[in-house]
Amino acid sequence: MTKKKILIVDDSEAVRSSLKKIILQQNSDLEIEVCEADNGTAGFELFEKKQPFALIFSDYNMPNMNGLDMCKKIKEKFGSNAPPMILLTTQSNPDLMAEGKKVGVTAWVIKPMSTKTLIQIVERFIKNFK
Amino acid sequence: MNENTKFVSKEEYDALERELVDAERKFYANLEVLEEKMKKLSTLQKLSQLVFETRDLEVVFDKIVEFSVNVLEVEKTLILSLNEDGKFKVLNHKGYSRKIKDKISNVIIDPSNKYIVKLAANKEVNLVKDVETEFSAELGLCQIILCPIFNDKGNLSVIYVVGYSKDNLSTYKGFLDDDCNYFRLITDQITLAYQNISFTKNLEKLIKDRTQQLINKSKDIIVMLENLPQGIVSIIQGMIIHKEYSAYTEKILEVNDLAGKDAISLLFDNSSLGPDAISQIETRILSSIDEDKLNFELNGSSLPVQIIKKVENGDEKILDLTWTPICNHNNIIERLMVSIRDVTTMKELERLNAGQKKELEVVGKILNMGSSSFENFISKAHEYLSQNEKILKNNADLDNETIILLFRNMHTLKGSVRLYDLSSLVDTIHEAEQRYEDLRKNADAWEKNVLLKDLEVIQEKIFEYNEIYQNKLASVLKNPNIVSMQLETFEKIVTAIEKRNDNEFTKIVKNSPNLKCFSDAFSDILNGLASLAKSLEKERPTMVVHDGNVFFVANKISFLEDIFTHALRNSIDHGIETAKERISAKKAPAGTISISVRLENNKNLIFTIEDDGRGLPMKKLREKGVVAEIFKRDEIIADEDVAQLIFRSGISSAEKVTQISGRGVGMDAIKGMIEEKGGLINVEFLDKSTKGDDFRQFKIVMFIPNDNIAYKIT
């Protein structure tokens, strides 16, 4: 069985490693591989190289390319093959959310995200991914 | 001339011409029929359309008879329906002469008529020829087209088309197949129309019912919102309150006209939440409304479920909040419903309940102690605490001796508290004691206020106990019945003395609630040993008491209680080994502690306490004496003198400080208390001198002047 891959894109190393730790701990029964990138450009390149992914977690505000633009690029290139994309942000901005909807962002999660929420997302999207 | 040219004769030509003319005539005749048919069909088409669209079959029946008579040129057409009474009634008719029309306008056709029976059975349009009717005398035989129509309930109606052979009004030459076909079409159309109408009617009824249900439901909801003793509001786009909310919300929040108000400020202004938390909430709500339900599922769990909010009149309310998204059929959240429950009273009750529970516990403890023990405890506690307070307030610096005094007071107090299991005091006192302990190591680090605060907290807790005692128990425990019982006993004693009846006297004294033998007088302490031993992970020791027929006056022995509390604790903590150690030393797993009591000449009480533990650790005591610079390392000191060190403050033979004892004050505290009463305490070895032994068996001997605290009764 191939591992299910999750892409985490965030410019904070601490955020990435804590997300990774929780995901791997909570889903020790599943074969999950976590890939990390620290900005949108790197995230897109990594996605291209290692796809398919089961799920993308991305910060919105990052250097080089923001999370929304990254999602947009992925959706443009891979269309319906793009996985669910969860964007993390600290501030809710209706315009941004509207654009996200157009692009195909699955959900916005307001930071700080609780561990419970994270587990919920992974359960919901990883277990549907074949 | 072409060689193919053919000549015909005149006869041949005429014949051909006749044929042509005939063909032409036939052609035009056919054309006419065709045109006629087209005309009929087009009218039929219109009629069909009408039937299809109609909601009123009365109109349709009008058109049908008109079509039948005017277009199909049928003389007479009747439409009959079978009534509930089982008879046919004319619904519509056309083409009958006035005379007959009057006759038939209410004509009843017998449903048992053989044609009708046949019609009802095969449900097809029937053409019946050469029929004699009641009008036949006048009009001759007739042909009838019978068309069955079944309405949505399956009831039969009939279109009854008649042509009479002798009718002058008619150009009738008998019905054609086409005529039957036209009526077949009409019949089918009408059946469909019935179904349509019934369907539409059902639909209308359904919509009407649903609408009514909806109205009722809305009414219910409104009634609920008006009367539900719970706050319900919903937040819509723009972060404002939706116009429908429960009336009770106004009562809870003490704000009127909530519709259109800013939700965040309505709910969270003057609340326990800080601006950052509120801005978080705002963000989370914003990210939910008008978005997929998923967004709420992911972000909504962090919305607050309980807040404290100060309302207009200054009252603080504890509010429980429940957040529920209201979605449309596409799972997009249209509003966020917030249920608000005012749980202030409930919380208050919970708090009171907890208080009552605590009170009951306290009452139980005091009842176990007994009224006099408790009063003793209170007055002693007060004494120790106020002494400490005085010392702390009056001294700018603390010398070592003062610190030890402070510590000893607290330590003794802790002993009583543990003895009586006044659990809410133990930790507080232990903490205070720990602070004095720290001071002993570093006297400069003292913070007066912290130490005074400790005293205050302890004082407060003791006060709570006393309050409960005074309010709930004192009157009961000091009930006159109890006093009179004691008086009664007293009278008996006097009588016994007067009669010089020693046996009687002894019996009375032994039964007197005020005079108790050692085991009864100190039962609290002896009973407490089991739990004490358990907390030190040792077996419960066996107690051997030789009470020497000495009886104690119950309310005069509180200082003795303190002494024995300390002494027995020391014994279990330091003397008696753990079960494991004892077994490997070939002893019984549980230790034995022996106490003997003697009353010498009614003047001196002599107590000895010994245990079968490991004995006094001579080597260790010697070492401590050297470290404390009491004697020099190579000095020759008798074991008896080394043993005296156990009465010196700050020297403990215990390896580690436990919460129970082992701070080197147990024995020195006892010594202090005994000396205060003008008594003496000493260590005596039980084993014959084998100098240089690491451990030596010993007993503690205490001499205490008998200040009317005990009597010997034999």
Describe the structure.
- The complex is a heterodimer of chains A (130) and B (714).
- The longest helix of chain A has 14 residues.
- In chain A, helix 3 links the parallel strand 3 and strand 4.
- Chain A has 130 residues and is an alpha/beta fold.
- Helix content of chain A is 45%, strand content 20%.
- Chain A has one domain: Rossmann fold.
- Chain A has a 5-stranded parallel sheet with strand order 2-1-3-4-5, with helices on both faces.
- Chain B is of the alpha+beta class and 714 residues long.
- In chain B, the strands form 5 sheets. In chain B, strands 2-1-5-4-3 form a 5-stranded antiparallel sheet, sandwiched between helices.
- In chain B, helix 14 runs antiparallel to helix 15.
- Chain B is rod-shaped.
Task: Write the topology of this structure.
The complex is a heterodimer of chains A (130) and B (714).
Chain A: E1 4-9, H1 13-26, E2 32-37, H2 40-50, E3 55-59, H3 67-78, E4 85-89, H4 94-103, E5 107-110, H5 115-126
Parallel strand pairs in A: 1-2, 1-3, 3-4, 4-5
Helix pairs in contact in A: 1-5, 2-3
Chain B: H1 10-53, H2 57-71, E1 76-82, E2 88-94, H3 98-104, H4 114-122, E3 126-131, H5 136-139, E4 142-150, E5 156-164, H6 177-227, E6 231-236, E7 240-241, H7 247-253, H8 263-268, H9 275-286, H10 293-299, E8 306-310, E9 316-327, E10 333-342, H11 344-369, H12 371-394, H13 400-419, H14 423-441, H15 448-477, H16 480-498, H17 502-511, E11 515-517, H18 518-521, H19 523-535, E12 542-546, E13 550-553, H20 558-575, H21 579-584, E14 592-600, E15 604-611, E16 616-617, H22 618-627, H23 639-643, H24 666-676, E17 680-685, E18 695-696, E19 698-705, E20 710-712
Parallel strand pairs in B: 12-14
Antiparallel strand pairs in B: 1-2, 1-5, 3-4, 4-5, 6-7, 6-10, 8-9, 9-10, 11-13, 13-20, 14-15, 15-19, 16-18, 17-19
Summarize the structure.
The complex is a heterodimer of chains A (130) and B (714). Chain A is α/β, with parallel strands linked by helices and 130 residues long. Helix content of chain A is 45%, strand content 20%.
